[in-house]
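Need a sequence for this fold. Nothing fancy.
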């Protein structure tokens, strides 16, 4: 078996006294589109927060391309080629779509990811390479027509595409997508899926949290399921459809809804 690109080893994450991720172990193989499913509150987004360096582990380890990343800051994780999108897009609403992408470029000068925000002048004088890359990301995500609109004014679906464009600015080896299709109309969802498949064909690895089961079944392999902070299943779509643990987890969710 090939070495995993991402390995979560017995990870736990707490919010105060509440354990949101409880000894989760999972591995993502390079070149896959791996699906992460599970009922609301299972700990999926919290796990993403931990992988991305935004939330500290209480126990366990996270390795990306063989190296420990659980002690790194979000900008260090992002710069190392592991990028995440947010379940609720968080663009700088007053800035244009293009400016949002310029800000997302990891600094060429070794400064921190956030330095341009503290130094707007540096953004205005940004070099042509970053601008070229931003335009490439815009064209790829079909956002070129709204490049100069305020990011807060474009549709929710376009904001999801902007999330993808934003992470592409770092040339990631792997992207974590948190519910990319949620709230996105079917036409734009198809665009998003096409882009994910195209990037995957070029070798990019994806770990995708998604509630749209049809999307997960058609595009993700393997599928990993979490419930109550733990990994309860891993397998292909066929196995997922017939696994009683998954049925139980989702029925539990409905029962508590
Ligand atoms: N910032 C937070 N503070 C306290 N509890 C949280 C916080 N974020 C999430 N939780 C709780 O942690 C659990 C896992 O949440 P989350 O990771 O968002 O689940 P999922 O993404 O699978 O729906 C839930 O019970 C949720 O209420
Ligand atoms: Mg979530």
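Here you go.
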């Amino acid at each position: 078996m090939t070495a995993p690109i991402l390995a979560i080893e017995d990870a736990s994450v707490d919010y105060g006294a509440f354990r949101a991720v409880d000894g989760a172990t999972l591995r993502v193989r390079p070149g896959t589109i791996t699906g992460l499913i599970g009922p609301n509150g299972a700990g999926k987004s919290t796990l993403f927060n931990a992988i991305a360096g935004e939330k500290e582990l209480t126990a366990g380890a996270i390795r990306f391309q063989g190296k420990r990343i659980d002690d790194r800051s979000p900008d260090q994780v992002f710069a190392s080629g592991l990028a995440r999108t947010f379940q609720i897009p968080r663009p700088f609403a007053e800035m244009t779509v293009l400016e949002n992408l310029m800000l997302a470029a990891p600094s060429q000068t070794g400064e921190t990811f956030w330095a341009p925000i503290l130094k707007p002048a540096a953004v205005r004088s940004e070099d042509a390479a970053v601008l070229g890359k931003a335009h490439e990301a815009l064209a790829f995500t079909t956002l070129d027509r709204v490049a100069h609109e305020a990011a807060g004014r474009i549709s929710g679906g376009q904001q999801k595409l902007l999330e993808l464009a934003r992470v592409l600015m770092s040339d990631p080896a792997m992207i974590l997508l948190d519910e990319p299709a949620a709230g996105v109309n079917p036409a734009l969802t198809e665009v998003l899926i096409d882009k994910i498949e195209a990037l995957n064909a070029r070798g990019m690895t994806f770990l995708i949290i998604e509630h749209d089961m049809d999307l997960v079944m058609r595009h993700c392999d393997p599928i990993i399921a979490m419930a109550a902070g733990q990994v309860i299943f891993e397998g292909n779509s066929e196995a997922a459809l017939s696994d009683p643990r998954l049925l139980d987890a989702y029925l539990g969710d409905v029962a508590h809804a």
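For context: The longest strand covers residues 18-28.
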